[in-house]
Amino acid sequence: MRLHAGALDGEARASFERARAMPIRVIQIGEGIFLRGFVDWLVHRLNESGAFQGRIAVVNPRPSGTHHIHQFQEQEGLYTVTVRGLQDGNPVEHAELVTSVARAFDSTCEWSQVLQLARDPHVEIALSNTTELGVRYEPVPRPSSEAPPATYPAKLAQCLYERYRALGWQEAGRMVVVPCELIDDNGQQLRSIVERHAADWGLEDDFYRWLRDRVEFCDTLVDRIVTPYAGHPPLPYEDALAVTVEPYYLFAIRGSERLKALWPFAEVGLNVHYADDIRDFRLQKLRALNGTHTALANLGLMAGLETVLEVMQHPTLSQFVHQLVQDEIVPATESRVTRPEMLRAFARDVLERFQNPYLEHKLRSIATNAISKARIRLVPTLLDAVERLGEARRLTAAIAAVSLAYRPGMRDVAASDPAADRLMSLWQEDLEGSARAILSDAELWSADLTEVPGVLDGWVRFVATALSRGPVEAIASL
């Protein structure tokens, strides 16, 4: 039986009925699993406490998300979050029905309805997660009301302009934008791109003033491992949108007294922090959690493994991960944060979280867009490590593993990445020639890595060993 409102009874039915009476107050661009297991779940918790009383309209940023939109529509916005893992050393496993999603719109054919929602004074928050590649500028022509522009920032710019035209300078026209993409200063970057689109489209100067005065763009940091539901604990219905999450989560939001009043998470015991500076939260997560994920994903895939847990159970690769975090990532990052003790504690938690026996965190999912992720998550740490420690053998090996995954003939290992063809074209017959071509490409890495002491030689040694004796032996040789 497929999950839908008619299949509910008892407390689940009561929760749905309470939610159904709430207005839509959030537009969410992004239909993927992360927001389902993170902000949508947090908003559900906030609604259950009575502290928000608002629901979410989900919109897909790209045509590839249409099938998820249809699933939301078929299930009346309902889905299940299963929490599985260790909390204070004790096993945790339970399922929770989430009722925070009211509607789902397919942007490819229901864009006019999304714009109508953007004009609604009840809507006060715009939420997004479109991956790191989603917040980027691409010139697009001024859009119509029927067909959406191609990129997320252009979609947001059009929604905000429609709101401005409908509500003007009324107090009800205010909006808070909460991007959850894992990039530095995500809110400010998004604002800059929205303003650039407004300039491209020749929008009036008063709209710029309105953007500055009536729309707040928040910088955020999000942290929770969310994976597809894998059958445990068993559910009494079929749920195409179910996700599994670890007990741990963290949401850090820079500033925003307005959002704090709308979303008083901490007041109901949820681990959400409003702060004037979230750089420490962001940097430790980017490097110790996401950077380590990117480092281990392609190595694990080349070793024939499928999940993070399998990597952490592998004697050689597990040792590599621990040493990478403790001996390179943490020392390289300590001088960048104001509270090194918080970084060290977070790193210890990360290693424990990776050993969660209940999560099936797929390496192939982590390896998606590995090149751009390595540029953001690994290269800055590598540069700091070499400067502070004199070398960074394991971070160099991680960059080499990403490069090797996109060597011609390795497509069964490599996950999708917009830069894949570029990297593949740089491979040559001569290994050192390949190394120089790949590592010197600043478009791939945002730096010429051949100029970093030890990286070129370390890359060549690792790749040569991996090609002759396999990736595990290459790791062992470190």
UniProtKB/TrEMBL annotation:
Its EC number is 1.1.1.58. This is Tagaturonate reductase. The keyword Oxidoreductase applies. Residues 277-456 form the Mannitol dehydrogenase C-terminal domain. It is an enzyme of class 1 (oxidoreductase). It catalyses: D-mannitol 1-phosphate + NAD(+) = beta-D-fructose 6-phosphate + NADH + H(+). The keyword NAD applies. Keywords: NAD, Oxidoreductase. It holds the Pfam family Mannitol_dh_C. InterPro entries: 6-PGluconate_DH-like_C_sf, 6PGD_dom2, Mannitol_DH_C, Mannitol_DH_N, NAD(P)-bd_dom_sf. GO terms for molecular function: tagaturonate reductase activity. SUPFAM superfamilies: 6-phosphogluconate dehydrogenase C-terminal domain-like, NAD(P)-binding Rossmann-fold domains.
